[in-house]
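Dear colleagues,

As part of the handover before I leave the project, I'm documenting each prediction I ran so the next person doesn't have to rerun anything. This entry is a single chain, and its sequence is reproduced below.
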Amino acid sequence: MTEKMRLRSAVPPEEKELEQKRQQLEAEEKLNRPFINHTGKINYVTSLIDCAIACDELLEMANKCLDQVFVVGFDLEWPFSFQTGPGKTALMQICPTTHICHLFHFTHLKKLPKGLYEFLQHPKVRLTGINIKNDVRKLARDFGGFDVNKLLNNCIDSGVMANGILPVTQRWSMEKLVDYVLKMKVNKDKSVRMSKWHIVPLSKEQIQYAATDGYASLLIYIKLKETEMDTSELHLPFKPQGATLSKTMRYSRRCLPCLGEIRSVEHLIWG
């Protein structure tokens, strides 16, 4: 009998039973988790003028942001065919806060509004999402006119970020991050995910699916920043004994949606 087999057989039956029950309860808890769903405002636009108006509003938010960066949830959708492959980018999701998601449907647009180029390449703006750099490369190929390096520099990949903060590292998907970070489930209905995103107008199911993806991207970023802050709190100098970072500071209007980096310990509020 090998050493590994001896160790395995040495585990008392009671402990094995407890471990099996723990795993069963954990599996049941995951099955009963709620689906993530965006319940805020959805601004779905299909015309150039409406898209331009929304982009001007986003630019104003970025310019007024007091923090170093202005982080927005970001995602793209496009039709896919097993015969011809991926189609042209049809939809862009931008969530500047957890309360609103902009859906820009490009099918009827011959060109993108100037304000969208300016917003996506704004020095303060950061686009966060899963495998986001591949998305912006496709966007630049499909429409042109972008400075690809600026776009890439403005990206925060949620998977890369998670691997630098969480105690586990892996190749993350949206579904895995929502499960691990948010303790929720993602509705990845193939009939919606693989649907005809270029058809105008989108169905209610498509609109809700797209808005939830953008919303989840921002929510994951917020939760990861909170985890990072909680971890770094253990190593900050000048921390008053027994004090913790103020909840007001963590979730104040000043920090959301801008959620920039803390520049020095003097900016922290202890509670």
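Strands lie at 41-45, 70-77, 80-81, 85-86, 91-97, 100-105, 125-129, 155-157. The mean pLDDT is 85.

All the best with the project,
I.
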